[in-house]
Amino acid sequence: MAKRSRTPMVMIHGAFCGAWSFDDFRQPFDAQYTVHTPTLRMHDCGRNPPREFGKVSLLDYAADLEKLIRELDEVPILVGHSMGGLLAQMLAAKGLAKALVLLAPSAPWGTLPSTIFEIASAQTLLFSGGDYRGTIIPPSYQIASAHSLDRLDEATRSAVYDKFVPESGQATFEIMNWSFDFRRAGHVRASDVKCPVLCLVGSGDKINPPSTVSRIASRYHGRAKFEEIKGHSHWLIGEPGWEKIAARACTWLDTALAEEKARSA
Q1: Where are the extended beta strands (E) located within 127-233?
Q2: Positive or negative torsion for Cα 63, 68, 72, 76
Q3: What is the C-alpha separation between 10 and 226, in angstroms, rounded?
Q4: Do strands 167-168 and 136-137 pair parallel, antiparallel, or not at all (unpaired)?
């Protein structure tokens, strides 16, 4: 009898990152799933990517991921961190996800910010460089240290930051200043997301705070479970205690997938 293949899982990294960001976090999932960790377009070009990188859209990232997913033997589970969480929602709305695990996810087009920090961050980008679409945004150690990697010790923080790469201004614009994006690149029709959704966010996350992530979960009308994790910030995939977060996601997936299977039987 042929051995049954394992369910595929695609982990989608966030802005300024690459597949490397899941090197540790993926390990608990490897025992149960066939895990894929693609690197988004031009995130493997180092600190000096081509100029055209600045024009890459969320739609381009999503198209690349859709191509990968459609080459798999079955619809995968999607795990997305930060910007990767938004891309996962975009793909799920196309029926390309068996389940979603969203880790500190960026919000879809039309989701209002809930904190002064979010509004100020978007305005700072908008007014400091005008229309920054088409530009390349370098990672800032100051911002990363204060708001993303703030739960890491200094040595680990420096090691992670050294792997960061620039991000597309276009994609950043589509996330942070979506009200000016008339293409609505980050739009997700909530009713098209049919799979179960788990939204996890750190209580100290300023980039995608609990109050905004709870709004994301509420869009899915009972299909999503929202959990705020005390003592954590934005880098859920590598902060001290990430093992418990991964274990929580594994447990939730076991239950959610079993319930989906029972409903479809």
Answers
A1: 136-137, 167-168, 197-202, 224-229
A2: negative
A3: 21
A4: antiparallel
Q: What is the CA radius of gyration of the chain?
A: 17
For helices 58-70 and 169-176, the axis angle rounded to 10 degrees is 100
User: Are the beta carbons of 184 and 85 closer than 8 angstroms?
Assistant: no
Distance CA 233, CA 7 (A): 30
CB 73 within 8 A of CB 188: no
Buried-state track 98-117, b at ≥16 Cβ within 10 A, e below 16: bbbbbbbbbbbbebebbeee
CATH superfamily of 8-264: Alpha/Beta hydrolase fold, catalytic domain (3.40.50.1820)
Task: Kindly list the strands in the beta sheet with 197-202, ordered across the sheet, starting from the edge strand earlier in the chain.
Answer: 34-36, 8-12, 77-81, 99-103, 197-202, 224-229
Query: Chain-wide mean pLDDT for the chain?
Result: 95
Domain boundaries, the chain: 8-264
Q: Are 186 and 109 in contact (CB under 8 A)?
A: yes
Q: Render pLDDT for 60-98 as a digit per residue (tens, 0 to 9).
A: 999 999 999 999 999 999 999 999 999 999 999 999 999
Segment 136-149, tens digit of pLDDT: 999 999 999 999 99
Nearest to 138 by CA among 158, 167, 105, 98: 167
DSSP H helical ranges for 45-192:
58-70, 83-92, 116-129, 141-143, 154-161, 169-176
Q: How far apart are CA 90 and CA 147, in angstroms?
A: 25
CA–CA distance, 72 with 84 (Å, rounded to integer): 19
pLDDT of residue 2 exceeding 50: no
- What is the Cα–Cα distance from 173 to 235, expressed in whole angstroms? 21
Of how many residues is the chain composed? 265
